[in-house]
């Protein structure tokens, strides 16, 4: 079970009653502008939350879709999925509700995913891919210690067109645990 606490935020398993909180992010035009999909309907978010909860029961587990929480309020969605052909590697994704942006929570969320990867799961490498226009996401990953590795050309098809992705990665021995993460 994922239950990780950082300085101000935590990661916990998704629950059925998180649908509205996830919809406030995945249904939002601004929050999804640079993501690989268009804003989701509430029904689609309900299905995503259902699938995510089901994925936690798969053995061996390969997907960790979690709620980002501030005290007991869900402010984000963070996901780690094991790379199918890369032992101890995983891809990450994260999105926060727009009205909490700009306060350092993005960087802390990426650190929480690193804690899940390197402490809980003993992984070696995690990586994330952002849209070329999503410079804030790149800045967020770099602030958490990720290194920019390059560009995957025409990686995703979204909003009717192919889009490149810019890739960032962090290795276990590169991660510097921030204050408030318990050593
Ligand atoms: C990406 C995201 C999680 C960042 O969250 P956040 O809480 O705003 O990020 P932080 O406050 O931790 O800021 C991280 C860095 O980005 C910078 N930043 C944040 N908002 C910015 C803005 N609007 N313009 C320029 N820089 C900005 C911060 O200054 C900080 O860099 P710095 O430490 O060098 O100053 C948030 O914008 C989001 O949810 N976006 C939509 C979903 C998304 O794009 N996810 C990533 C998919 S790859």
Quick summary of this structure?
The protein has helices spanning 19-26, 29-32, 42-55, 105-120, 135-143, and strands spanning 3-5, 9-13, 63-70, 73-82, 89-96, 125-130, 147-158, 161-171. The chain is of the alpha+beta class and 183 residues long.
Strand and helix map with partners:
Elements: E1 3-5, E2 9-13, H1 19-26, H2 29-32, H3 42-55, E3 63-70, E4 73-82, E5 89-96, H4 105-120, E6 125-130, H5 135-143, E7 147-158, E8 161-171
Parallel strand pairs: 5-6
Antiparallel strand pairs: 1-2, 2-3, 3-4, 4-5, 6-8, 7-8
Helix pairs in contact: 1-3
This protein binds coenzyme A (COA).
Residues 31, 34-35, 94-96, 101-107, 128, 130, 134, 136-137, 139-140, 143 line the site of coenzyme A.
Fold and architecture overview:
The chain is of the alpha+beta class. The protein has one domain: 3-Layer(aba) Sandwich (Aminopeptidase), CATH 3.40.630. It contains five helices and eight strands. An eight-stranded mixed β-sheet has the order 1-2-3-4-5-6-8-7, with helices on both faces. Strand 3 and strand 4 (73-82) form a beta hairpin. The structure holds coenzyme A (COA). Coenzyme A is lined by residues 31, 34-35, 94-96, 101-107, 128, 130, 134, 136-137, 139-140, 143.
Order of helices and strands: EEHHHEEEHEHEE
**Model regions low in confidence, pLDDT < 50 over at least 5 residues:** none
Tell me the count of domains. Answer: 1
Q: Would you state the CATH class?
A: Alpha Beta
Which percent bin holds the helix content?
25-40%
Structural features:
183 residues, 8-stranded mixed beta sheet, 5 helices, binds coenzyme A
């Amino acid at each position: 079970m994922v239950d990780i606490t950082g300085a101000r935020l935590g990661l916990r398993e998704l629950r059925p009653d998180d649908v509205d909180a996830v919809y406030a992010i995945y249904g939002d035009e601004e929050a999804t502008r640079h993501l690989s999909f268009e804003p989701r309907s509430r029904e689609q978010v309900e299905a995503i939350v259902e699938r995510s909860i089901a994925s936690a029961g798969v053995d061996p587990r390969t997907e960790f879709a979690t709620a980002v929480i501030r005290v007991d309020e869900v402010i984000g969605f963070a996901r780690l999925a094991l790379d199918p052909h890369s032992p101890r590697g995983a891809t990450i994704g994260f999105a926060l509700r727009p009205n909490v942006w700009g306060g350092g929570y993005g960087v802390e969320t990426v650190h929480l995913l690193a804690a899940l990867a390197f402490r809980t799961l003993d992984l070696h490498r995690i990586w994330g891919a952002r849209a070329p226009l999503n410079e804030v996401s790149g800045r967020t990953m770099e602030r958490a210690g990720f290194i920019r590795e390059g560009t995957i050309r025409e990686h995703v098809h979204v909003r009717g067109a192919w889009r490149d992705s810019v890739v960032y990665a962090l290795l276990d021995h590169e991660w510097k645990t921030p204050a408030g993460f318990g050593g």
